[in-house]
Amino acid sequence: AAQTVLGNMLAALSILASRPFVVGEYITVVSSSFPQQWGTYPHETEPVGFSGTVREIGLIYTVIEGPDGIPLHFANGSLMTSLLINHSRGVVRQVRARLTVPRTVPFHRYQQEVGRALAGVSDVVPGSLRLRIVSVGESGYDVVIMVGIPAVDAEEARSRVLERLLALELPAPLS
């Protein structure tokens, strides 16, 4: 038990010295030590982990306030062996959406429509739009749309981008 306590204390000193995060920053902790359920398309989502705002870096535990307001206590030693994603330090965040397009709509025309729809969203970083076909089915194909948005107010900007994509009217099929 003393070894674990001492390890967590040394890990706290390491966290304070290397500063992968500080109090007030929004982070995600990804570790195989903490089981999580994967999303429908895990290869297209952010890594599955625990996210929240760092509230305290203590000698034994770091406390992160989760999105629902519940405090999460991580042993500092476990944080040292986890992937830590610091969302507060990026300048641009990525919005990803996966949509199914009918096969009758040519991809190049769909690209043009998405470009036009997102051109009116002031949050979109110029030149950041990318579309990729990720699967093809009998009646349609799945497209992943990726666009950069400013990290400041990212959730509101993400919502505006997704609302615009939901309102997108598909081009008429070629006959």
TrEMBL record:
<dbReference type="InterPro" id="IPR045275">
    <property type="entry name" value="MscS_archaea/bacteria_type"/>
</dbReference>
<dbReference type="InterPro" id="IPR006685">
    <property type="entry name" value="MscS_channel_2nd"/>
</dbReference>
<dbReference type="Pfam" id="PF00924">
    <property type="entry name" value="MS_channel_2nd"/>
</dbReference>
<dbReference type="GO" id="GO:0016020">
    <property type="term" value="C:membrane"/>
</dbReference>
<dbReference type="GO" id="GO:0008381">
    <property type="term" value="F:mechanosensitive monoatomic ion channel activity"/>
</dbReference>
<keyword id="KW-0812">Transmembrane</keyword>
<keyword id="KW-1133">Transmembrane helix</keyword>
<dbReference type="InterPro" id="IPR023408">
    <property type="entry name" value="MscS_beta-dom_sf"/>
</dbReference>
<protein>
    <submittedName>
        <fullName>MscS Mechanosensitive ion channel</fullName>
    </submittedName>
</protein>
<dbReference type="InterPro" id="IPR010920">
    <property type="entry name" value="LSM_dom_sf"/>
</dbReference>
<feature type="domain" description="Mechanosensitive ion channel MscS">
    <location>
        <begin position="5"/>
        <end position="89"/>
    </location>
</feature>
<keyword id="KW-0472">Membrane</keyword>
